[in-house]
Amino acid sequence: MSSAETFLATARQVITDEARALDALADGLDARFAEAVDLVLQAEGRVIVSGIGKSGHIGHKIAATLASTGTPAYFVHPAEASHGDLGMLSKGDVVLAISNSGEAPELANLLSFTRRFGIPLIGLSSRMDSTLMKEADVHLQIPALGEACGFGMVPSISTTLTLAMGDALAIALMKHRDFRPENFRAFHPGGKLGARLSKVDDLMHDGTALPLVGADTPMSDALIEISQKGFGVAGVTGANGTLQGIITDGDLRRHMDGLLDKTAADVMTSSPTTIAPGSLAEEAVAIMNDRKITCLFVVDPEGDTAQAVGLLHIHDCLRVGLG
């Protein structure tokens, strides 16, 4: 067998072993998981996650996932906890302590602190007879299935199972709290994810930036409005401010003959495509791409009149990574 074939065979075996372990984890979940969820939901404070070594690395990720999905959480390093960071824990918090063996000595002071001050403790370990699980109020047990290296020395299967258990906990809490994409964006304002979750009213132009003219506005004035506002379009409003139509470059070309003798109402396209301010910007991009247009007027469907409250241009979406 060539080196490349050996590498691929090893990789496939590792992934297969971890996939089977995840199936075993799912099959083994019981009422203790629901107890852990309930314990966190009842907490008035935060979830304090702690672990050492690879368990600590996984703990960092679990704390971050909890925090970004509506469950206040942060990671406390057990060594730092023994040198003052125990003061970060308080009544109302819940501790999630992680140790595959359940015997990490660095966790001893943290466990003792939770017992002394009545702070609920969730243990995440593969051994029910371990110190951690004996001290814990609620147990999240992962199956003891060895490691992918074959000799039990390289945390791999155990860390995958721990991470999956943390994700399951975070998402169960998220779903119970009815945590939605708009909530998620509040914790993810940057990057591609933040862009995907942007709402129309996060990106739209409003106020005096809107290119609007009355229905009876002479086209000579409408052209000035289009030019000054710089979007290549103008919205046409009725007497009560209702958006009645839109003037685009296509409308201008179609009415070129005698254009300056006409009014905005003569040239406009009636009943233009609009979008609500609370819609996702990603939806707006899809509409613009589908209709081959470059901008959308924003109309609040909850308003008394269909007045334009904003304008979203495709360039606004492209600037934040959408499109």
Short synopsis of the structure:
This protein has 323 residues and is α/β, with parallel strands linked by helices.
Present the secondary structure layout:
Layout: H1 3-28, H2 31-42, E1 47-51, H3 54-68, E2 73-75, H4 78-81, E3 94-98, H5 108-116, E4 121-125, H6 131-135, E5 138-141, H7 157-176, H8 181-187, H9 191-196, H10 200-203, E6 212-214, H11 219-229, E7 234-237, E8 243-247, H12 249-254, H13 264-267, E9 269-270, E10 274-275, H14 281-291, E11 295-299, E12 308-313, H15 314-319
Parallel strand pairs: 1-2, 1-3, 3-4, 4-5, 6-7, 10-11
Antiparallel strand pairs: 7-8, 8-9, 11-12
What this model shows, in words?
Residues 36-179 form the SIS domain. It is an enzyme of class 5 (isomerase). Zn(2+) binds at residue 77. This is Arabinose 5-phosphate isomerase KdsD. The chain has helices at 3-28, 31-42, 54-68, 78-81, 108-116, 131-135, 157-176, 181-187, 191-196, 200-203, 219-229, 249-254, 264-267, 281-291, 314-319, and strands spanning 47-51, 73-75, 94-98, 121-125, 138-141, 212-214, 234-237, 243-247, 269-270, 274-275, 295-299, 308-313. By secondary structure, the chain is of the alpha/beta class. It has two domains: 3-179, Rossmann fold (3-Layer(aba) Sandwich); 200-320, CBS-domain, CATH 3.10.580.10. The strands form three sheets. Strands 2-1-3-4-5 form a five-stranded parallel sheet, sandwiched between helices. Helix 3 packs parallel to helix 7. The longest helix is centred in the N-terminal third of the chain and has 26 residues, at 3-28. The protein is elongated and about 90 Å long. The model has no long low-confidence stretch (mean pLDDT 91).
